[in-house]
Design goal:
The chain is α+β, with helices and mostly antiparallel strands and about 400 residues long. It has helices at about 1-5, 10-15, 20-25, 45-50, 80-85, 95-105, 110-115, 115-135, 140-145, 145-155, 165-175, 185-210, 215-220, 230-245, 245-260, 265-270, 275-285, 320, 355-370, and strands spanning about 30-35, 40, 55, 135-140, 295-300, 300-305, 305-310, 315-320, 375-380, 395-400. The chain is built from 19 helices and ten strands. Strands 1-2-8-5-3 form a five-stranded mixed sheet, sandwiched between helices. A three-stranded antiparallel sheet has the order 4-10-9. A two-stranded antiparallel ribbon has the order 6-7. A hairpin with a 2-residue loop joins strand 6 and strand 7. The longest helix has 27 residues, at about 185-210. The radius of gyration is 21 Å and the shape is globular. The model has no long low-confidence stretch (mean pLDDT about 90).
């Protein structure tokens, strides 16, 4: 009966999936979910191992066509979407993934990211001060969204006049990652990908001729080991960096503050000891992660927990469940802002480990630190967005 309870389209499940996850880990840690044709994997050890297993991939198109892999090709109207998405490093495998990641990784080293901390701290402080001056408001739209959007847009070199376009494009594109998206959601994602791609193509062409001190200019000029980025790869990479560079951070901020409001003792503990901010951020990433599920294609037959999973199907790795597994975490359902041993997988693992993790950590530490000074209180209980795979709040209204 577990499959009736695992219902990613049910608002009650989206609001609190953790009891269902606990049942899955004990009774059905590897189980087939008929509505999506995927194998759900619930335990931390299995999820962690599969993220590193090269017999799985984010794509199978480097090994076979859709037809040879036993899959139906996507509808023709989706072509503009996949042209953009499959040119970015998240949806390709080595050797293409290796080349793309090498070209971009220099901008996201811990040292490079640390050099951005003063600017990030200034933006966070200004946003928090504005919220205080207004006596409160929606923490997500007024602080959580502007901070990472501003940071990644400045890194890439998106003009300030155009930055209001980024969040809507990103949200519309990410709708395609939900389970069984509606036809309307699919068309919206295609339109957003096409508009976003066209915008970045024009911007990259401008920067190729008139380079600035930004990542798009650098990528437009780059020659590395004889490999130049194609225009599609540049666009796909920038779409990925812009989406991943703020989507998760926004939701970690919203989910994280909602978690702290529900655990007031831990919030007061953090306010009393700011040295806990780094461990608190890791714990908030674990306790209510915004990325609840990460999908991989099975490229060769595998066995997980005694269950044979054949080539040609998808596994759905349940990050939210893995991050609450008592085999990996002591007292996993307790929020502990000082948790020292915290092997959460919210940034993934293996070759697709989140390239922007160092940047996300700095942004979150500075954002939570600035907002702690505001002494926020919850104004009303928030509602969750309908999405399950990328799980976040509609808004989070607070008073000062």
């Amino acid at each position: 009966m577990w499959f009736v309870r695992f219902d990613p389209w049910n608002p009650s499940f989206v609001a609190h999936p953790y009891d269902v996850y606990a049942d899955l880990r004990v009774n059905d840690p590897v189980s087939f979910f008929e509505p999506t044709g995927q194998w759900l994997v619930a335990r931390h050890a299995d999820v962690n191992a599969l993220l590193r297993d090269r017999r799985l991939g984010r794509s199978y198109l480097h090994t076979a066509t859709h037809e040879a892999f036993g899959r139906e090709p996507e509808p023709e109207f989706q072509e503009p979407f996949w042209r953009v998405i499959r040119a970015g490093m998240l949806d390709v495998e080595p050797p293409v993934h290796t080349r793309l990641r090498r070209l971009v990784s220099k901008a996201f080293t811990p040292r490079m990211v640390e050099s951005l901390r003063p600017r990030i701290r200034k933006i966070a402080a200004e946003l928090a001060e504005g919220l205080v001056e207004r006596g409160g408001g929606d923490l997500i739209s007024e602080v959580a969204e502007p901070l990472p959007v501003t940071v990644i847009a400045e890194m890439l070199g998106v003009p300030e006049r155009d930055r209001h376009l980024l969040r809507p494009w990103s949200a519309d594109i990410c709708g395609m990652y939900e389970l069984n998206p509606s036809l309307e959601v699919q068309h919206t994602a295609v339109r957003a990908a096409q508009e976003f791609g066209d915008y970045l193509r024009d911007l990259a062409r401008t920067r190729r001729d008139e380079p600035g001190d930004d990542l798009i200019s650098a990528l437009a000029q780059v020659v590395d080991g004889g490999d130049r980025l194609s225009e599609d790869e540049l666009v796909g990479t920038c779409v990925l960096l812009l989406n991943a560079g703020h989507e998760a951070t926004v939701n970690v901020t919203g989910n994280g503050w909602w978690s702290l409001f529900r655990n007031p003792d831990e919030l007061e503990r953090l306010r009393a000891d700011r040295s806990l901010l780094p461990t608190a951020v890791e714990e908030l990433l674990r306790w209510d992660t915004p990325l609840q599920m990460f999908e991989r294609w099975v490229l060769e037959d595998i066995e997980v927990g005694g269950v044979r999973i054949p080539r040609g199907v998808e596994v759905a790795l349940l990050f939210g469940s893995a991050n609450r597994d008592p085999e990996a975490f002591a007292d996993p359902d307790r929020l502990d802002v000082g948790r020292a041993d915290n092997p959460h997988i919210s940034f993934g693992a293996g070759i697709h480990f989140c390239l922007g993790a160092p940047l996300a950590r700095v942004e979150l530490i500075e954002s939570f630190g600035a907002l702690l000074d505001a002494n926020l209180t919850l104004a009303e209980e928030p509602a969750w967005k309908p999405g399950f795979v990328i799980r976040g709040l509609e808004s989070l209204r607070v008073t000062v």
